[in-house]
Amino acid sequence: MSEKTSEKKKTRTPMPEQPPEVRAGNFDEVALGYSKEDAIAEASRCLNCKEPKCVEGCPVNVDIPGFIKLICEEDFEGAIEKIKATNALPAICGRVCPQESQCEALCVLGKKSEPVAIGRLERFCADYEREKGVSAPGVPGSDIVEPTGRTVAVVGSGPAGLTAAADLAKLGHKVTIFESLHKTGGVLSYGIPEFRLPKEIVKQEVEYIKQLGVEIKPNYIIGRIKTLDQLCKEFDAVFLGTGAGLPRFMGIEGENLNGVYSANEFLTRVNLMKAYDPNYDTVVRRGKHVVVVGGGNVAMDSARSALRLGAEEVSVVYRRGEEEMPARREEIKHAKEEGVSLKLLANPTRILGDDKFNVKGIECIKMELGEPDASGRRSPVPMEGSEFIIDADVVIIAIGTSPNPIIFKGSEGLEQNRRGTVVAEDETGATSKCGVFAGGDVVTGAATVISAMGAGKKAAKAIDEYLKEK
Question: pTM to 2 decimals?
């Protein structure tokens, strides 16, 4: 490799973006996507390793070197087919997956320079397919697997459920998805804002799942309309991918005041109920001084959404430092560029209200990092007498979620742990209830889209083996 070529490979191709001062005032997608020339230039940085490590970091086992090589050859149709052989939701993964801590973290090029932008290249291929109408594997015009005569119920149409459904349909099983909401997509639809994941993208990815023969029944709450036990009698197997939609609160004074939201409710109103669209008269409090509590992607999504709804000042309160924030570095960077203020090493102690029970402020205490906790992270310790107040007319609590307990109604023999999540085997998703498998946030608690998809893939394989044995 020449010195000039080596230098060229060090820096990744920039992603075109809306300028911060423009995007902070709209809900349009921030990242604009690679052009054909950008994609080829970035793909050419790949070293074509004889023993690529990047695939090991992909929960859905995409043939990363294979599809990147096809981009270099300008065979974009072949590239998207190779991706979709194992990933049913590439346009979504290319936008919201934390590639920097997964496939890109293991890229050999990243040891001395910037890793190949695998996520951006995946997004390019998916967007190319959508724009050009490329026929992907498993849809009309491709080879169809002979029906097995077996039926599988999938509860929940989030990333875990959609992935499991797609893989099972490709194996010839008849799959029916039961979704409690009126829209398909789970957290992809109600949780992730338009500026990170346009709803049209989710809709089109779901259409691909339908083309595989999957039936989707919206407005269908398992635990109310039918129980899990009833599904077990009607179907040969069941997959639970119901996510973690039950918000957690801090248990501090003032959480019942007007203007206090869980991030789930706030983002559902913004996304699913379309508060982001001026043509909709969605009821949501548009505060001037908004405080978001938490340090994950959901907190960043809430803060950036509040800013776009017209807030003059948005602060994120987090009890650790910026390095310890679980949010993606890119999301933190974008939030700061747009004007979101980080109030680090601080933790709320109470929420203050006026005589009409409306939020008027939030009291916090300063923290310092002490000894590492069980996970290896340094535990935050309050600094006595350091309380301070931040003015606020809206407070959004984004400190995590748990599974909705409704799924356990009428589900005899389904074991759950003290956190309220379903107990399931790591490699198969098998639960304590015969014929019932589970994966995603309903098992792990709130995690990433791609980890849920990985669980859906493992469960689909295990369900197929179970059905063959049955």
Answer: 0.93
Sign of CA dihedral 154, 156, 162, 163: negative
C-alpha closest to that of 293 among 347, 341, 224: 347
Sign of CA dihedral 340, 353, 272, 446: positive
- pLDDT digits over 86-132, tens only? 999 999 999 999 999 999 999 999 988 999 999 999 999 999 999 88
What's the rounded Cα separation, in Å, for the pair 201 and 126?
Answer: 10
- Residue 420 vs residues 225, 239, 414: alpha-carbon distances, Å: 22, 17, 11
E-assigned strands of 181-264?
215-217, 237-240, 246-247, 260-262
Long-range pairs for 249-252: beta carbons < 8 A, 24 or more residues apart: 249/397, 249/399, 250/293, 250/348, 250/397, 250/399, 252/348, 252/349, 252/350, 252/351
Percent of the chain with pLDDT over 70: 96
How many alpha carbons lie under 13 Å from residue 305 in its C-beta half-sphere?
A: 31
For residue 114 the two structure tokens come to 């910037």
Distance, CA of 443 to CA of 456 (rounded, Å): 11
The alpha carbons of the chain give a radius of gyration, in whole angstroms, of: 23
Structure tokens at 219: 């407005």
User: How many CB atoms lie under 10 A from the CB of residue 323?
Assistant: 7
Distance CA 59, CA 160 (A): 12
